[in-house]
Hints:
By secondary structure, the protein is of the alpha+beta class. Helices cover 18% and strands 37% of the residues.
Amino acid sequence: MISDKLFALVLVVLILSGCGVNEEAEVKNIAPKPSTSTVVSPEITEGTSKVTVEDTGKTNVQDSNTLDQFIKKIQPPNEQLQKVLKEDLDRDGKLEYVLAFGLEKGGIDNIFVVRDDAGYHIIGKLEDPVMVAHLNTDMKIMKLDQTEQKFIVVYSTSEVDEAEGFSIFTVDHNRISNLNYNYPEATGQGSRKLEDINKDGVFEDVSYYRFQDTQKHTIITYQKFDSTGPEKTKVLYENKNKKFVYPTDPKDIIQNYLEDHYLRNRFFIHLPEMAEFIALSASPKNNFESIIDFSAMDYTGLDLNVKEIAYEANQRVFLVKSSSEEEESNQGLVFTLEKQSGKWKIMSIEMNDKL
């Protein structure tokens, strides 16, 4: 009888021990899985290199932390992470990250292209092609035509915002190339933009040249973004009438004519208004540059000294020089104007090179 009771007690202990093992195994099987996070537009915290990536896909938290650690390794001294772009730029199935660093918030001083290829590594740095002082303020990844190719575009301005331009880069596996750049290096003023000016799905490299001349001309030149194909030109009038207005003062006619002479020769454009100013028996000589200094046209406007030297009824004669010329010098251009049908017309232009 004692043996039967002992056997029953042992059996109960064994059954209870088995239940405990099964309950523990069940708890382990319902442990939570690793979480994922959606990567959103960059929110860079000043003074840190905490990174979020401009992309709408999902990235494992562990991968994001690895990228964050890699960024800290390559971060230039005293520079902060300004922007991160993520894209398969060369369409080889592997992601590239474009990392922009700068000394100050909103400024870009160094740009690295990094590939996620069995670990993060630098494939190259964007070499800034602009040779004059400027600020790189933004970068984008863009499609510029109707193909699937994507480009890195870096935007630049001057410190006082009198100039703006851009640079276009391509990535082909481990090779980074500057496809094109346009910045007003010669004058430090003017706008160079990437625009689909024809609304045909292909971007153009567009240059805006604004002048402080009589008609307030803006000359627009544009060409396909990769500098192929013909260059085209448009002429805008930025005066209050938005069109050509015939001047009423003879001095303004002379000023307007010489301004148009400069624009025609510089941009190889036809300005029909020039023909409205003249009623000449013979075409004037075109070597005005030996007498008139046109260099200020790109800055403050053509600065002329127009002095009336003769007047008879409906005819007036003017000696025209650059304002920088000595006052006592008689070297200049002699314009003779005559009033016809209520408008002053240029009847002759002669060189007066007597000192």
